[in-house]
Amino acid sequence: MSQVKDVIIIGAGPAGIQAAIHAVRKKCDVLLLGRIERSALYSAHVENYACVEGVKSGEELLQTGIDQVKRFGAAVMDDDVLKIHVLDEGYSLELESGISISTRSIIFATGTARKKLKVPGEKRLFGRGVSYCVDCDANFYRNATVAVVGNASAAIDGALTLTGYASKVYLINQKLVASQELLDKLKGSDVESFDGTWVTEIQGDDDVKSLLLENGEQIALDGVFIELGAKGAMELALEIGVQLDMDTMSHIDTNKKTETNVAGVYAAGDITGHPYQMAKAVGEGCVAGMEAANFARKQKRQES
Ligand SMILES: Cc1cc2nc3c(=O)[nH]c(=O)nc-3n(C[C@H](O)[C@H](O)[C@H](O)COP(=O)(O)OP(=O)(O)OC[C@H]3O[C@@H](n4cnc5c(N)ncnc54)[C@H](O)[C@@H]3O)c2cc1C
User: Fold this and answer.
1) For ligand 1, which residues put their CB under 6 angstroms from it?
2) Are residues 109 and 238 both part of a single domain?
3) Which of 29, 93, 96, 287 would staple 153 via disulfide (CB 3.0–4.6 Å)?
4) Claim to verify: residue 157 and residue 97 sit in the same structural domain
């Protein structure tokens, strides 16, 4: 493999940052992917983290962490992962910016799964037309009319995927923020966009029947996919056969070494389940960083 990274960490929250620090200090070639402003910690104010006195802003903590990661020699990119492919040796990640990068090991540090729209009807109709996972549920909407709600790469990618299943796909967005490549793909597709508006209600008695938009329009449909933020870890994990926690189906199953069921793939932080706390994220990040680095170094020795 050419230009292959040892460890790629998906997620620039406390788990990913700590993982990057520990992996790079084991003399590995490390890339940290993600945006601090999308970390759950970003707008938080933390006062229960050991050895840090007073109330600290999440933004400040994260920025300090990113500076440390860079200082220790890891690469950092504000980019979202759209797809992961399994190679003979390692993995290849497709990024929102259009770049593909190969790696010997991956750490999922992508935070909690699903962001909610928080509109009437969403909770009640979950599983009855409301979905948070295009890759899990697209097949149920063959020849149906569906909408995707979201402003970033996950929503666009989801809408494009759904054109392979549904007969009509709408994309409801306030303002799309994504790479030009993805925006161009959207432009050339059959997706119909409702720009500069948002959903105020998901309607239906037993199943989803329509969406109400803030501009007053009502759209009749069979399903709505809520895709806020980056592509969800669940979809990415499922793509490469990573097992989810059987109880919740919304967390990645790991052992004490943060290993998943897939060789060379680790997970840390909120994505592995409760408690959703910075201390747990950092602890698991530390373990994952060291374990992934050990794995990559062993792989490298076998390759040479
Ligand atoms: C309002 C609020 C207050 C809180 N207060 C506290 C507190 O006082 N104390 C405490 O301990 N905890 C607190 N928490 C919880 C804490 O913020 C989380 O437990 C912690 O941020 C989890 O870290 P993480 O690294 O697992 O995930 P996150 O911090 O959520 O980071 C996830 C990262 O993954 C990235 N990502 C996701 N998908 C992709 C993708 N496809 N490609 C690339 N990157 C991706 C995101 O961009 C982000 O950078 C609070 C949370 C909130 C929301």
Assistant:
1) 10-16, 33-36, 38-41, 44, 46, 48-49, 80-81, 109-111, 230-231, 233, 236, 269-271, 276-279, 281
2) yes
3) 96
4) no
For residue 58, which atom of ligand 1 is closest to its CA?
17
Say whether both 107 and 146 belong to one domain. no
CA of 145 to the centre of ligand 1 (A): 33
Cβ-contact 16, 289 below 8 angstroms? no
How remote is the CA of residue 64 from the centroid of ligand 1, in Å?
15
Ranges of the chain with pLDDT below 70? 1-2, 113-114, 135-136, 229-232, 246-250
Q: Which helix (DSSP H) or strand (DSSP E) does residue 202 occupy? A: strand 199-203
Identify the residue whose C-alpha is closest to ligand 1 atom 26. Answer: 269
Q: Looking at the 3D structure of the chain, how many domains does it have?
A: 2
For 124-159, the DSSP string reads TTBTTTEES-HHHHGGGGTT-EEEEE-SSHHHHHHH
Domain boundary among 188, 204, 226: 226
Which atom of ligand 1 is closest in space to residue 79's alpha carbon? 43
Amino acid symbol at 191: V
Query: How far apart (Å, rounded) are the C-alpha atoms in residues 63 and 67?
Result: 6
pLDDT digits (tens, 9 = 90+) for 206-262: 999 999 999 899 999 999 999 886 566 777 888 899 998 765 566 899 999 999 999
- Residue 263 is part of which domain span? 5-113+232-303
